[in-house]
Every structure is written in structure tokens, then in C-alpha cells.
Amino acid sequence: MKYRIIPAACLLTFFANLNAQVGAGKVSYRRILNVDATSHKIDSIGTRAILFFRPAQSLFIYNSEYTKRNDPAIKVTNEADTYSFETIDKDGESIFTDYARNEITIREFVWKKPYISGEPIPSITWTVEKDVRFFGKIICHKATTSFRGRSYNAWFTYDIPFKLGPWKLQGLPGLILEASDSENEVQFKFESIEIPSKEVISFQPPTQGKRVNFSEFKELWISETEKLYKFIQSTAEKGAAVDLKLNYYPIEKSY
After folding, report:
1. Cα-based distances in Å from 116 to 15, 78, 176, 204, 206
2. Integer angstrom CA distances of residue 240 from 38, 55, 166, 233, 247
3. Which of 119, 145, 170, 175 has its CA 20 to 30 A from that of 252?
4. Which pLDDT belongs to residue 73?
5. How far apart are CA 76 and CA 85, in angstroms?
6. pLDDT at position 157 over 50
7. DSSP 3-state assignment of 211?
8. In this structure, are residues 52 and 64 in contact, taking their beta carbons and an 8 Å threshold?
9. Three-state secondary-structure class, residue 12
10. How big, in percent rounded to 5, are the helix, strand and coil portions of the chain?
């Protein structure tokens, strides 16, 4: 576990330097999703996800060539007629949060095609609890909330007073180092933190993909899935039954 603790006397200088740096800080997570109601397998490993952050901006990246590097291999089922639609590329899927503009920009794949959408930064009402937990020597406090159909527990630290976190979870008075929903279907498990990050990145929203309206994205997914289903039916052997089990259920159950 990597961490660097900043003494209280040095915080003012630290935050001034952090604000001036391009690649300010970096948190590594395990992004674990068990949101597919059709699957009987539980994923306990997940995939690597990275949060680059500075005081008013963050870039959360997953399913990219970079985050998949040195990631444990996912076991692939040997069942016949099983289709895999996992997609990665150089840019991956990402969420860029920009408090100066009050917006997030999202890059996601729909059956191997990248799309870009955006929305205002969601307003999340948190309740800070009394529970305390240590990540290495970093002291974190528990907070709870309900957000888009799920109840979440999060652990954040006042020592890094940036209201940022993994995915779309943000708005607390400190950086979120770990979070999960009440059913453990959605988990962002803390692995390590680097301050400052050894990697220099440009804090810019994603641009590689077709732009769509955020409110239309769900309808786009449904329509593209129907096209895929019809294609698989047309290519199947005559008389063969096609049971396409889609391994996609949104983290967000409501909007």
C-alpha cells in the first residue's frame, strides 16, 4: 500500500504546490461490479481504475489500455454460444469532473463504440457518521448517502480537502478513498495513493467519441442492443435458439 502523509504544519505549502501541478494526485482503486442479475458468478477481483485529481478537477479512468496494464486476467467462461463484448482502447471509459464549469463529461462504450455525454455535477446529500477507519496511516471518516437508486457508504479524508471521488461520487469535504453500495454490487476499493503523482496528465474532458445528449444515452443503449440481438439471430444456424444474456445493468437505477 502506497501513501504519503503530509504533516499538518506543511499543509498550506502542500496545497499551494498541489494546485500548481498538472498531475497533482493519483488514487488507484479496484472497480468491482456485480450488477448483472442474469449472472450467477460473483466478481471479487474487479478491474483497476485510476482517479487523477487536483483541487477542483478530477479524471476517473477505467477500461483503458493503461488501467488494464498488469491487471489480473479475468477468467472467461467456456460455455458455448457465449458472447464477450468487453472493450478497451487507449482512452478507455472516463468521467471528467470540473467544478469550475459545474459539469461532468462521460466517455462510455456501447457495444465497442465510444460515446461522450455530459451533465451538471450531481448534487449529493451526505451524512457524515461517527465511524473512523485508517487506510495505512490516513485517517478516514464514514459518510452515507442515497444516490440514483442506491445507498452508499463512503470513506473520505479531511487531510485532502477536495470534494472529489471515484466515478460520480463527490461533494464531501475531503477526497473519497473508498465507497460501496449497501448491497456490495458496486464497490470502489482503495489500493494506493500518490501525492504528488509521478505521472503528469492533462486535465481535459474526453473528446474521442460520438457526442450524444445525456438524457438520450439510455435509449441509445436499448436501441443498439436490439440491433445487436437481431444481428446475432440472423447469423445463428437455422433453427438454433438464441438466448442473449446481456451483461449490462446500469449502476444508476434512477436519474
Report:
1. 32, 33, 25, 13, 7
2. 21, 56, 43, 9, 21
3. 175
4. 56
5. 12
6. yes
7. strand
8. no
9. helix
10. 15, 35, 50
Cross-strand partners of 180: 153, 187
The amino acid at residue 26 is: K
Rounded distance between C-alpha atoms, residue 165 and residue 155, angstroms: 10
Mean pLDDT to the nearest integer, 36-62 = 87
Query: Among residues 80, 113, 118, 77, which one has the least CA distance to residue 97?
Result: 118
- Which grid cell sits at 157? 479524508
The whole-number pLDDT of residue 228 equals 75
The reported pLDDT for the residue numbered 40 is 62
Tell me which residue of 149, 189, 163 sits closest to 27, measured CA to CA.
Answer: 189
Which residue type, as a one-letter code, is found at position 79? E
Phi, psi dihedral angles at 35 (to 5 degrees): -105, 5
pLDDT in tens, 78-125: 444 445 556 788 999 999 999 999 999 999 988 788 999 999 999 999
Phi first, then psi: give them for residue 218, nearest 5 degrees.
-60, -45
Strands of the chain (E only): list them: 25-33, 47-54, 57-62, 93-98, 103-110, 113-120, 127-135, 138-147, 150-157, 175-181, 186-194, 210-211
d(CA 214, CA 111): 17
Q: Which residue has the cell 494546485?
A: 19
| pLDDT value at 42 more than 60 | yes
Q: Where is average pLDDT lowest: 116-125, 192-201, 204-213, 246-255?
A: 246-255
User: Does pLDDT of 77 surpass 50?
Assistant: no
